[in-house]
Every structure is written in structure tokens, then in C-alpha cells.
Amino acid sequence: MKHKKTLTIAIFVLFLAAVSMYIVNDLSKPSNPRVILDHHKQTYVTPGCFEQADATNFIEDSTLENAQEIGYKPNDECTESEILD
Fold this sequence. Notes:
- The chain has 2 domains: 1-30; 34-84, no CATH class.
- Strands 3-1-2-4 form a 4-stranded mixed beta sheet.
- It has helices at 2-26, 64-69, 77-84, and strands at 34-38, 43-45, 59-63, 73-74.
- By secondary structure, the protein is an alpha+beta fold.
- The chain is rod-shaped.
């Protein structure tokens, strides 16, 4: 009887470990993250770097793929590092 309880606990722990690995994978960065386009400077900024980016008022929400398609460059090193991470 004691072995059955130990086996049940072990299976439950393995199940929790498997679920936690799935959750960690699910929280990875999206394949096409959101960025903020600065049309005046023709650059893009990630949301986490926006406060320090000194963006103009001519901005628009977009995707990284769109920003690269229209030839915009990262605004600063903060944006570059967030995109590469």
C-alpha cells in the first residue's frame, strides 16, 4: 500500500514537471513581436525601450516583420538587444 502511494506521488510530480516545461516554452518570445514605428526617424522601438527612445509624435504600432519590410532600423541598442534575446 505504501509503494502505491509513493508511485502516485512520483507520477504526480512528473506530471507537474512536464506541465511547467510546457508553460515555460509557451512564454517564449513571439515570432513576430510588436514594435512602435517612429516614422519621422524611420526607426522602430520595442515597448520595453520606448521611455528612453526619445521618439517623435509620428508613431504607430506595428510588427517587427513590417518594420523590417519597410526598411526601418532599430532605434537604439536597447531595442536591438530586446529583439535578439
